From TrEMBL:
InterPro entries: HAD-SF_hydro_IA, HAD_2, Pyrimidine_5'-ntase_YjjG. Keywords: Hydrolase. This is HAD family hydrolase. Pfam families: HAD_2. One of its GO terms (molecular function) is hydrolase activity. It comes from Enterococcus alishanensis. It comes from the Bacteria.
């Protein structure tokens, strides 16, 4: 009987988009000195812009939708480098190529196995469009470690984070005997806040040392901390 579940976010939690971002910067801005802390802050801004673009894409007012390439304007402006629309498109294309080369850390595979051995249900719940996120799930071979019926994309719920209703809908399809719900994610806005308000216990993978939390939540700054924290919670 399942009493406890751990669901994980996908992008920037299981799939390392930051690594793809850094690879893209090295290819297109090789002459620029890149301070690690500054690059992390730049990526946080880039990611927030990506989230805004996704939210706009769900809007009923298409005229307000910003091009996905626009997030790269932030990067070119940061490096004070002239750009054309073609430059933005090529940069974005290369980012997606590097993104598709990422794989699931073996440490995550072992963590999933340990959770399941301890009678904990493991799943994935990710924002995004069904086709794109399903391809990422296949890319990481997640069905080799997690049953397919425990892998969820918000689009299939007709919803999107940071809506609290996403997590409420997810609860509805889980076993009724579950007593503790944990959600592991990297985004304070999209993961921590709505999960908390839906009655889940957020576990924040705060890789980029972002703002302090306003809610009680567990927090880890890297995978090693995350692993030890989850092992304590089970």
């Amino acid at each position: 009987m399942v009493k406890k579940v751990f669901f994980f976010d996908l992008d920037d939690t299981l799939l390392d988009n930051f690594a793809a971002f850094c690879q893209t910067l090295k290819q297109y801005f090789p002459e620029r000195e890149q301070n690690p802390d500054e690059i992390k802050r730049l990526y946080v801004t880039f990611r927030l812009k990506s989230e805004t673009i996704y939210e706009e894409s769900l809007s009923n007012e298409p005229k307000k939708v910003t091009s996905e390439f626009d997030r790269w304007k932030l990067v070119f402006n940061y490096f004070q480098q002239h750009f054309t629309q073609a430059d933005l498109a090529v940069c974005d294309q290369q980012y997606h190529i590097f993104q598709k080369e990422q794989s699931l850390l073996p440490e995550y595979q072992r963590l999933f196995e340990k959770l399941q051995t301890n009678g904990v249900m493991v799943g994935v719940f990710t924002n995004g469009f069904a086709t794109a996120q399903t391809n990422k799930i296949k890319q990481l071979n997640l069905t080799q470690h997690i049953p397919a019926d425990q892998l969820f994309v918000s689009d299939l719920f007709g919803d999107a984070k940071p809506n609290v209703s996403c997590f409420e809908k997810l609860k509805e399809v889980l076993p009724t005997e579950v007593e503790e719900f944990f959600y592991v994610g990297d985004s304070y806005k999209n993961d921590v806040v709505p999960a908390y308000h839906a009655g889940w216990q957020p576990v924040w993978l705060n890789r980029f040392n972002e703002r302090k939390v306003d809610y009680h939540t567990y927090q880890a700054n890297d995978f090693d901390q995350l692993k030890h924290l989850i092992e304590e919670l089970i």
